[in-house]
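Sat 14:20. Reprocessing the chain from the morning session after the first attempt stalled halfway. Input below, unchanged.
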Amino acid sequence: MEKKKSYIIPVTAFFSVLVVVFAAYLFLFSKNPVTVYSEKGADNGVLVPLNSAAQRACSKNGNFAFFKFTDVQQHLIKSTYEDKKSVSVVFRISVKFPGGKALSHFENVESIPLKIGFLEKKDFDSSGKLDFNIQDHNLITCELKNTLDYEKPLKTYDISFALPFDKVSGALEKREGIFIQSDVNAWLQSVSVSQSVTGFDVSPDISFWGFSSNGGKLDFNSAFFDFTGSSNIFPVVYSKDKVPPEIEIKMAQPSSKEEELYDYSFSFGGEKIHIKRLSEIKISTLALKNPFANMSCKNTEGKVLSVLYKQGSESILKSSEGDIVNPIQTDPGLILNWPKENWRNPDYELFEWDRLPGILFFDTKNYAVQSKFFARIAFFIEKEGFKGKLLTNAELEGKHDYNAHDYSAESLAKFFNKAFRLNFRLNPEEELLLDILVRNGVLKRVDDVLNPYEAGKGAVLSVSREIPSWNRVPLLAHEGWHTIYFTDEDFRNYVSVVYNIMDRQTMDFLMTYFRSQPSLGYDQNDEYLMQNEFMAYILQNGEGKAGEYFVNKARWPSVRKVSEYLCDYIIETSGSGFDDCLYMLQDYLYDKYNLKAGSIGLCSY
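Finished this time. Tokens:
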């Protein structure tokens, strides 16, 4: 028995060693091809491995894995750039830390870098043999120290690296291949070629991090990102054929009613953008003075899921006639302080409410420009004694229209139809306005010899930079509420109910105030107009501020001259009837549009 036992032990040891050797053989000599995909998911072959680490598609212990592009892949890169005007290579990399006690070793080291870069022509000698020196290469350095996790030692990331191009000539700089280097096991799972995107998105299972051709440091902190290099791959300023990028921001859904009021604050190069009660938004970089800078967000506690720079929509380019006819979609809260130097036209900028398609905003450099677009329409639609009349320029001379404007699609159709029937000569600005309305669906051209225009979907409002800064927010809100009134029948019906249950003396005061101000010129026999103005005057004020606003009006001599008794009533009651109506109206707007009295914007500077 003893001899038999001594015979079995060596055999067992032999097979154990054989298993280890075989496993090592598989690890050292097995191949793991890396497939290259296009944006559409098409397979474009596999990368050419240039060393043993690349054959396994794995880097560890500081070893490099080098890969070369095939001719097919080079063509994919070039064609993507020609089609999309930018191109990036996206590395899908899985990183695995050792488990158990072995992981504690990495807790004590200062840095655990993963490096990603492109192979260039200079990395090969005249015979085509790799002669690599990492110096003078732009790199993406991923700080894996910040991803240590005992529960999830294996993590996968998509890391995008843009290829450089000459912004003067537009020529793409050729790259021969890619490399990765890691101190821990890092497998290159696949590669895809796509349009360039910079920033981060941690919302999917595989988080995304995109860098410009400058590279950069990835520390996996979603409260900060360096967008300075994005100016290398996106247009910096608007031109006749180039559109700067837009920013897509996504936040986690709030878990409670209180969190819905959370004000997210983002800083782009020191310029702050506040976002309220939104989970997603797109912002054109034209809204910022210095968008290509460091971005940071404070006190967000991991609630910011993504901040991405993407190619801007070419729909906002000037028309072939050189006019601005297509709007920039944005939150209204950004319009008032939009950098005027970023306007596409020096006289005006055109916007569209991002969450309410068809509602167009004009911001004009002064009242004079605004009047050329809207003065004749104002008298035709609203001014008492002039409604339905087309005044000539001579007749309009010296008359005051409004400091801000708002018009429904139905009213605009009536104006332009009458001008057509009378062959009335319109200003160039009014002709341009008609073109804008038709192109954006607010008006529709129809086959009718007398009325060639009918109402489409939407409305128009206008403000001016000449409006004092203290009054631009409430005035924009006032006009914005009107456009919701025009386009939401349920809201109109709700306003009518609130209008008819308002305290009688408070309502009489409101009508008195309107009559006391000749510049307003409201036709009080127009019930639709009166209910619309009643609603807008109340909601232009913040919560609890409507009463205070009208108490101030009740002290005006011009109003007291008409009815001192009603003015005293408003002062004595602190305008409570107005505040009661404000809260009732706000309930509807908050439930349907997530809006609150005082501002139609969910973003601000």
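Residues 1-9, 19-29 have pLDDT under 50 and may be disordered.
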